[in-house]
Amino acid sequence: MSEAKRRAAEKAMDHVEDGMVVGVGTGSTVAYFIDALGRDPHRIRGAVSSSEQSTQRLRAHGIEVLDLNTAGPLPLYVDGADECDPLKRLIKGGGAALTREKIIAQASLRFVCIIDPAKQVDVLGRFPLPVEVVPMARSLVAREIVALTGGQPVWREGVVTDNGNWILDVHGLRITDPPAVEAALNQVVGVVSVGLFARRPADVVIVGGDVPKVL
Ligand code: 5RP
To answer: So what's the pLDDT on residue 36?
Structure first.
């Protein structure tokens, strides 16, 4: 699988232009993208990073990490996903970086999503949907999620996000109306963000394979 991820990441370099500030996601697929950027670290002006993990890797390659408040809006955001439907709507947050990923995606003109073929689904929800919550609201939010979706929230124990929050992974969903589910869960008090990218889907999806597919 990692070869497919690497190929998708390499293909995303087609979207990188000289002097750009690039938004950079999180995860094993993005790690290949950072390594590709690192072959010529001064070709871009810098990167806005979605996690401490990606920040460390970017800096190790000598790529400057910039603050979104001064750098944005961004021309390009490159990130992976846990699931992708035919309308380029995504489940993200397997790496617990969903909130910063969502912020950067929203602040970017073009979102290029890089995935291996196993991430393609007809209906989102087989991958448990990550929801970032304020710690004191964990049980409250879990009860609301059951009532709103019928899914089963499971606390990702031991994981603390870069924002100091916790993650609930919602199992057993079949998300036939992603914008409605995203909107409903966003309304729950104590929810920081929902790993459903339907309101702001990807613009381009690159599926790694022998010959990467660009959707
Ligand atoms: C991190 C994410 C990742 O993009 C997602 O989990 C995919 O990861 P990988 O590229 O390792 O398969 O959303 O929060």
So the answer is: 98
Task: Average pLDDT across each block of 10 residues of the chain; the chain has 215 residues. List them in order.
Answer: 91 98 98 98 97 98 98 96 98 98 98 97 98 98 98 98 98 98 98 98 95 94
CB 93 within 8 A of CB 160: no
In the chain the first and final C-alpha atoms are separated, in Å, by 19
C-alpha 169: how far from chain center = 15
Domains of the chain: 2-120+200-214 (3.40.50.1360), 129-195 (3.30.70.260)
Assess whether the C-beta atom of 113 lies below 6 angstroms from ligand 1.
no
pLDDT given for residue 72 in this prediction? 79
Helix, coil or strand: residue 86: coil
Q: Is 3 a catalytic residue?
A: no
Mutate to test the pocket of ligand 1, among 7, 24, 30, 162 (most ligand atoms within 8 A of CB): 30
Q: What is the CA radius of gyration of the chain?
A: 17
